[in-house]
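RECORD TYPE: inverse folding
INPUT: structure tokens
STRUCTURE:
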């Protein structure tokens, strides 16, 4: 072979090859983490606190230990290493010690030879509690982090002022595959963990420290992931399964039930927000003041980063000379909250977009026009003082959704009215409304975090033809990453045959599959590793012989920097991404029923590496925003989750998701690999306020809380 590069290769970037896991998932043949199995395998179960706050007086394990088939019953006393874990602050106990701080907190774990036996044993554990008064109102919570933003003069006045108070409920990631994994004790005294996660190395560092083992004695491999959306960034049953496996000397599998899953992972932060916008008579913003309060629940998780995003992005993609924003994340005794698609930007966007509609109304302006007059442009500065580099097509995105083809006229088929096939209305009280929303999201980890990814690319001859293997620790969570990595290798090396190795911790970290960062950072690492392969090939005279070429590269994007603790100024973010939505809804104002008729969306993705997947991400993210707008909320009563099931926690079905007009812009970012922008989160951010704006237009109601419920529309 004279060269590894061919003139034409199928499945390169910019095309949409079939995903290698796609057919298996559609046919039900794909192995998810809950399908794992091993010889002599035991099953793990967890006993959880029924109280949001209580002191543990005593724990009696006698009944559980005596049950035939039980092999281990463990409590906090059995934790050999660090007693606490956490992504940013290690404040969460592996198992509760002394006091439980939220309803659902793990207190003890059991391993048995049958899952039902394990559950029965857990139920036999007797815990005596001294119930304490929980803190359930975020206004009374202990401040975890305060992020102040001060830009420009702070004494500005304006002739037109609008104010509003807004709330966002607690949303669940609602991934279909519950938390699950398999831990297998190893002969070297370590453990191998096969796990559905978003960050293998993030898990590794926490698990090994809690087990009291060197990091090289704990090996993690990615098992099939049934969705994530931020809910798998934190450790759930990872340490527990490993503890039980090491204690019993046998493989231990843990699979949460659907109900337990609601207690086993973090949720989107509920938010209370107060905004004041001041503008001149032409609708140009002069100042924005805001207070953003996020309920982080019992433990920190990623609350510090979420409140930073909510605050730094808290005025939206608008040019504002004077900004005064205070963001707070607080501890309460509610369930822990952390990462979820949109990561703080979702909550803020609902508030600032609601305010832009109020401003348009106060000025008698079109809601798109008032947004366009204030739209950021390249070279403008964010509230943090960071200059917006690269394309910022805010006005263009708004124009595109406004001029998108309109939906069909009002439905005449009763099945297409609010309430649908339930035949609850004949259309007498149905009103149509149209609303708009646009949002901004950072891409990647921020505030000086050392954000990098590691990739290994091997080029060799197989049967006389060049073939490549790419290996990273990046988690495929359904977003199509394994397809993209193969496309990059085909593009850079010109080979047809590319194998994507199973993600595991035998290679360096790839960071988390979150923050819309994985294609950017791991894609950049794979591209760089391919470049290293080509350099070595060139050194060999362009000939690939019997000796493979194997290159490993650690790749970083441009650096970010911490925020000034007093002013919030600083170049905290890597990249900004933008999306706009237009929503059309029909509302039965008498019954309080809403049907989203059509959604038009436009988004700049920089470069569509896999165009079909890009459209899928935009459609899926929009549907998740629809859920927050009109149905999804974890109901808390005195700190306890009251709807931990898909019977009572509602998510959009195919009958709820409307036709979508998707307009994809490719305005390349010159600083990103291939010019790409992260795409996974922006659709979720602006779809919610657009839908609520449409409901307001149909009803004339203020609607300052999401999700919008029927009683909000009928007053009953």
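DESIGNED SEQUENCE:
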């Amino acid at each position: 072979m004279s060269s590894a590069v061919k003139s034409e290769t199928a499945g390169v970037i910019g095309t949409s090859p079939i995903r290698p896991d796609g057919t298996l998932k559609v046919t039900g043949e794909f192995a998810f983490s809950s399908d794992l199995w091993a010889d002599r395998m035991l099953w793990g179960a967890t006993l959880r606190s029924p109280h949001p706050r209580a002191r543990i007086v005593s724990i009696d394990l006698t009944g559980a230990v005596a049950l035939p088939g039980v092999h281990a019953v463990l409590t906090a006393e059995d934790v050999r290493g660090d007693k606490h874990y956490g992504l940013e602050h290690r404040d969460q106990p592996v198992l509760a010690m002394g006091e439980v701080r939220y309803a659902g907190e793990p207190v003890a774990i059991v391993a048995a030879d049958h899952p039902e036996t394990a559950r029965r044993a857990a139920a036999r554990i007797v815990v005596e509690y001294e119930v304490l008064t929980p803190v359930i109102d975020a206004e009374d919570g202990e401040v975890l982090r305060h992020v102040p933003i001060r830009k420009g003069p702070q004494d500005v006045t304006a002739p037109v002022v609008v104010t509003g108070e807004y709330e966002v409920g607690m949303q669940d990631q609602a991934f279909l595959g519950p938390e699950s994994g398999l831990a297998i004790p190893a002969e070297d005294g370590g453990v191998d963990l096969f796990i559905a996660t978003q960050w293998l190395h993030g898990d590794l560092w926490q698990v090994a420290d809690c087990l009291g083992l060197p990091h090289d004695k704990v090996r993690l491999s990615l098992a099939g992931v049934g969705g994530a959306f931020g809910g798998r960034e934190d450790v759930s049953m990872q340490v527990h399964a490993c503890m039980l496996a090491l204690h019993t000397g046998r493989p231990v599998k843990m699979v949460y039930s659907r109900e337990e899953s609601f207690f086993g992972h973090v949720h989107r932060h509920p938010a209370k927000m107060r905004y004041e916008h001041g503008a001149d008579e032409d609708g140009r913003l002069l100042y924005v003041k805001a207070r953003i309060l996020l309920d982080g629940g019992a433990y920190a998780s990623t609350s510090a980063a979420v409140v930073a995003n909510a605050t730094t992005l808290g005025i939206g993609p608008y040019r504002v000379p004077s900004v005064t924003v205070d963001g707070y994340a607080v501890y309460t005794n509610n369930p822990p909250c952390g990462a979820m698609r949109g990561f703080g930007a979702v909550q803020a966007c609902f508030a600032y977009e609601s305010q832009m509609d109020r401003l348009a109304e106060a000025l008698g302006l079109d809601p798109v026009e008032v947004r366009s007059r204030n739209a950021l442009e390249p070279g403008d500065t964010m509230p943090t003082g960071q200059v917006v580099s690269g394309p910022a097509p805010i006005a263009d995105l708004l124009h595109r959704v406004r001029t998108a083809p309109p939906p069909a006229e009002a439905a005449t088929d009763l099945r297409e009215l609010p309430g649908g096939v339930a035949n609850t209305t004949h259309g007498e009280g149905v009103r149509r409304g149209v609303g708009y929303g646009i949002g901004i999201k950072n891409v990647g980890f921020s505030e000086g975090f050392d954000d990098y990814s590691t990739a290994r690319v091997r080029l060799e001859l197989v049967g006389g033809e060049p073939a490549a293997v790419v290996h990273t620790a990046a988690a495929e969570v359904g977003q199509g990453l394994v397809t993209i990595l193969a496309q990059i290798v085909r593009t850079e090396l010109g080979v047809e045959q590319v194998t994507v190795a199973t993600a595991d911790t035998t290679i360096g970290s790839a960071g988390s599959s979150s923050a819309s960062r994985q294609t950017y950072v791991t894609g950049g690492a794979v591209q760089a590793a391919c470049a290293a392969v080509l350099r070595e090939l060139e050194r060999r005279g362009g000939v690939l012989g019997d000796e493979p070429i194997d290159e490993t590269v650690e790749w970083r994007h441009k650096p970010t920097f911490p925020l000034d603790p007093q002013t919030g100024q600083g170049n905290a973010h890597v990249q900004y991404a933008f999306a706009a939505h237009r929503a059309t809804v029909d509302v039965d104002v008498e019954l309080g029923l809403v049907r989203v008729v059509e959604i038009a969306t436009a988004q700049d993705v920089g470069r569509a590496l896999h165009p079909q997947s890009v459209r899928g991400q935009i459609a899926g993210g929009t549907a998740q925003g629809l859920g927050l707008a009109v149905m999804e909320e974890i109901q808390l009563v005195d700190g306890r989750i009251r709807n931990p099931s898909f019977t009572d926690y509602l998510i959009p079905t195919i009958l709820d998701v409307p036709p979508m007009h998707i307009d994809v812009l490719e305005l390349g970012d010159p600083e990103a690999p291939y010019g790409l922008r992260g795409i996974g989160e922006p659709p979720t951010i602006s779809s919610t306020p657009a839908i609520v704006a449409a409901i307001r237009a149909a009803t004339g109601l203020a609607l300052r809380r999401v999700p919008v419920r029927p009683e909000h529309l009928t007053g009953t």
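NOTES: Residues 429 and 684 are 30 Å apart (CA to CA).
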